[in-house]
Amino acid sequence: MEQNSKSERRRLYKYVVWEKIVIWGIFLGALYVLRSFFHIIFLTFLITYLMRGFVTWLINFIKPPTKTRILVERSITVIGFIVLGFTIYGAGNYLAPKLIAQGHSLVKKISASESGPRASIDSFLNSWVGGWLFQDAFGGEADERYQTALNEYIKDNPKGGAPQFEEYHKQRLYYEWRNGEVAKRIQDEIEESLVSGLKHLGQKIAGTIPRLFTLPFELLLVMLLSFFITFDIPRLKHGIKKLESSRVANIYKEIAPGLIKFGQLMGRAFGAQAVIAVVNSALTFLAMLLIGIENAVFLTAIVFVCSFIPILGVVFSSVPIGVMALIQQGGSWNLVALVILAILLIHFIETSILNPHIIGEIMHLHPVMVLAVLAIGERFFGLWGLLLATPVTVYILRVLILDEDVFSSS
């Protein structure tokens, strides 16, 4: 009898495990099939979460009578979405033409620089290699070789001085080095890599510009979906709750609790990250204006999107800014160095001030783990894989496996 009971428990355990695997397999498979609609699903969820949070906070603050609570909730929802709609319309009406114009301008500049980057490479190598060769040949001002060569130069060029002497020999030594076989090979490799990189960057940016034309329709759809969900959320809750006693009760009981926790994690994490993204974008925009980088509005839009990607986001957003600093009229490697310094300062502000006070430890993962899941996410889901890989991994590792209370650290 006892043996039969143990055998029955084993069969039940195996059945439950396989049931869980099948349920989650179907759910994840459905998500993969719907991956092209991720932007609609995600934005609808995010706007609904934030708007619902705002409505709940305002209701708790006002404390209307129970009889009129639903009416007040719906009135606040309608007013909130009207204000949000006009805000998005005004911002889009102002920013969209600039984003499209500056995006086309950046693509043209990149395309024009693909055919002739040798001058920039030559200038860069001249400043570094020429200086190093000069130092090796003549030493410093106190070196006897330096003084002897300087005196000979002034004898032949009476109007010249030390600066002209150094510039002349740096260029001479550099061009002698450049004509060698090794130098030619290095320069060809750099030029080939730069041309290939610029071409790829130009194609990526050109591919994002058509999306700006479809964005208003997608935002309208997202706003409508979010509005109807937020407006009718009590009835939706009641309808979904009925699934608990339906024929798909097992699927509901398996997936619903996990989705609720995951939704809370996503909402809090992306809500906090959105604040950080706005601050990052504003600081980067001001830095570009001060340094004198062209197409600042379009580049700031890239910074805003990339702010949601951990670790690699700062790299992805910095590359177009650095390229712009090099290829724009009056661009130089000195301008690129200023851009790098500004980005490092902004990144320091983000990691030392913004992240600890706004997002806390809710999304903390080891950097190696983050890079690994970003690579996997991008491979299967593209941009949305980069955006969602970290929160999904945090949920699986820290909530499901380790059973941590990640919300207490946010």
Structural summary, described in words:
With 410 residues, the protein is mostly helical. Helices cover 84% and strands 0% of the residues. It is built from 14 helices and no strands. The chain has helices at 2-33, 38-62, 69-114, 118-138, 144-156, 162-178, 181-231, 233-241, 249-291, 296-306, 312-327, 333-359, 367-381, 383-401. Helix 2 (38-62) crosses helix 9 and helix 11 runs antiparallel to helix 12. It is elongated and about 100 Å long. The relative contact order is 0.09.
Keywords for this structure?
14 helices, single chain, mainly alpha, about 400 residues, about 85% helix
Quick structural overview:
This protein has 410 residues and is mainly alpha-helical. The protein has 14 helices and no strands.
Topology:
Blueprint: H1 2-33, H2 38-62, H3 69-114, H4 118-138, H5 144-156, H6 162-178, H7 181-231, H8 233-241, H9 249-291, H10 296-306, H11 312-327, H12 333-359, H13 367-381, H14 383-401
Helix pairs in contact: 2-3, 2-7, 2-9, 3-7, 3-10, 4-6, 9-10, 9-12, 9-14, 10-11, 11-12, 13-14
Instruction: Give the N-to-C terminal Cα separation.
Output: 52 Å
Contiguous runs where pLDDT drops below 50 for at least 5 residues: none
**Overall helicity:** over 70%
Query: How many helical stretches?
Result: 14
Rg from Cα: 30 Å
Largest pleated sheet:
none
Report the order of strands and helices.
Answer: HHHHHHHHHHHHHH
- The shape, in one word, is elongated
Mean pLDDT: 75
Beta-strand share of residues: under 5%
Number of β-strand runs = 0
Estimated structural class: mainly alpha
